[in-house]
Amino acid sequence: MPALHAFALGQLLLLLALLWPAASQGVAARCFWLLLLALSAEVLRLALPWPELLDWLLTGLRAAIPSLFWLFCLATFAERLPPKRVYLSVLSVVVLLPWLARGLSEWLAAGVALADGVGYLGQSVEFVLLGHALWVLVRQWRHDLVEARRRWRWFLLGSSALWIVSVVIAEQLIPGGAAWAQQANQWLLPAWLLACNMQLLTAHTAGLFSPVAVPVSPKPEPQAAPEAPPELARLLAQMQQQHSYRTEGLTLAALAQQVSLPQYRLRQLINSELGFRHFNAFLNHYRIAEAKQRLAASDDAATPILNIALEVGFGSLSTFNKAFRDDAGMTPSDYRRQHNAPNTV
């Protein structure tokens, strides 16, 4: 086995061992662990001679890398995976298409054109998944309250995304690019893995794979503990007395200005003291709490649900319905009916 491949494999095994405890407890760590496992299979495929059938099987595992990277992005930064049937279908497609394309081209002479079409379809799926992963990375950055995750997301995802995208583009779109991509991988993969190990070993990723904390429920009045930071009482008063969350499109920067705090300090308060990992989840927690009170109140029995949604800070009825279902497990209409109020949409 070439020295660079042996080094890369050693780094992968170390990462797999380091992340095993977290992978057994959290979805994000499990997705990253599976991504590292697929990379290990690719290193072994490139480093050692394999019988044709085994090499064909390992090619499918290599094709799973973009989809596992996509799942890792969703689990880590959106903190939500698509329905199980969706991501299992995606994984099946991205693994089966390369197998099918290679089988058609090598074992069925008449199937070369069909193999090319199947191969292009597989490439298209890879690009869509990578594009969506990068979109999630950028879209969620402003609302992320976990400092460790904000600090290292550009390294862990930005560097790996650029690496994977560049290799995919070289292999699929540039004539002769497959040889260049294979040569580049011999150097890029060990370097990236070594950097990952350094980050994990120095504990700077604390919080990256930690389970989602249960947020503290809003209280009717600010009730910060005596030992709590004094800024916390000011934040609670702003939310519970001034009702800043009712402002549609409220940003962390705007709220920081209202409570006279730097943005980084406000992120720390909301995350460490109240348990929220995303700013929108923090706002929606208050918005949904008020909406529930109004849906159950006899005084608001005739108020349309759309009016309530807009008045508590949501920008549209569809956004409100989705957030409400995620929190209460039912639609606003069902919640109102359970509390014996007429349903007025």
TrEMBL record:
Keyword 4Fe-4S on entry: no
Superkingdom, natural source: Bacteria
Keywords annotated in UniProt: DNA-binding, Membrane, Transcription, Transcription regulation, Transmembrane, Transmembrane helix
InterPro entries for the chain: Homeodomain-like_sf, HTH_AraC, HTH_AraC-typ_CS, Tscrpt_reg_AraC-type_HTH
Alphabetical GO biological process terms: positive regulation of metabolic process
Transmembrane intervals: 53-74, 86-105, 117-138, 154-175
Alphabetized Pfam families for the sequence: HTH_18
Domain HTH araC/xylS-type per the UniProt entry, residue ranges: 233-338
GO molecular function, one term: sequence-specific DNA binding
Keyword Phosphoprotein: no
Name of the protein in its database record: Helix-turn-helix domain-containing protein
The organism of origin for this protein: Atopomonas hussainii
